[in-house]
Please model this.
Amino acid sequence: MDSYGITANAKLNLFLRVRGILPNGYHSLYSVMQEIDLADEITINIYPERPSGFDLKCIGRNDIDPGKNLCSKAKDRFLSSLRKKAASDPSMPGAKLWKKNKFPFIEIILTKKIPSESGMGGGSSDAAAVLMVLQEHFGNPFTEEELNQLAVNVGADVPFFLYGGTCLCERVGEDITQLNSLEGIPLLIIKPSAGVSTPECFHAIDSLSLPGFDEERYKAFIDGLNREDVSALDRFLAGEDLLKNDLEIPSMEKVKEISAAREALLNSGARYARMTGSGSAVFAMYEDEAARDAAYEKIKDDPKFAGCDIFVSKTI
Model:
């Protein structure tokens, strides 16, 4: 048996703009995504001596449906692509087995800490972790470009997690530019008990009139994020009015606690607070850990958030 342990970190959309609809029907996005230290833990056991098969165990949160888990989809897409590549290149190691679908038994044990329907990309991060482990185990059969395409076919946020850190993500999410790290910013996150359906949120936004997109100003802002003479928080907050999430309005209409969470975080001393992705989680950035921890002590006892998950975190 070969066993691999990997951490699958959550992400935040520090801002998110919707730039229209692409010819394939997907929305074109423009967002800075940031890894944070909240993470799922994954163990992948591969049994070469056992007949082909698969088992997925979810531990922790009881809101995960193993049948819909992106880990399974990632595994299927990877092995299907590996079989096709083996069929077209008989010289690759293992080709005789792979092209006949004779793969080892794969077991995934997933310990969930990232809540679903939060906008923090837990499922996508898990899927990327599976792709990276399988890529290593099978001898790196795919190029970086091929693995990136595999990832976007699993889910829009999955390619980001192949890179991690701080990235500008465009189009569906497959066009990625790595940026200077914004690590070390103290965070407080409130996840309401109710989640937001991403497809429903995007459907709702199509009927809204969105703010304009000033391409030159955003380009200048992204260039500024790569400065090294200013703190991570100040580099980011230099964006001022550019830092919007176009999905906030439809999500707030579906989950009223989102607005209350953002207001409470701003009133707690946060320098910035925003919903991530399509929600329903709301995050806040603080000047330092002392300010963040003081806000946590205040908010954790607020009865308005009794049914919410509250996370103390930081960017990584």
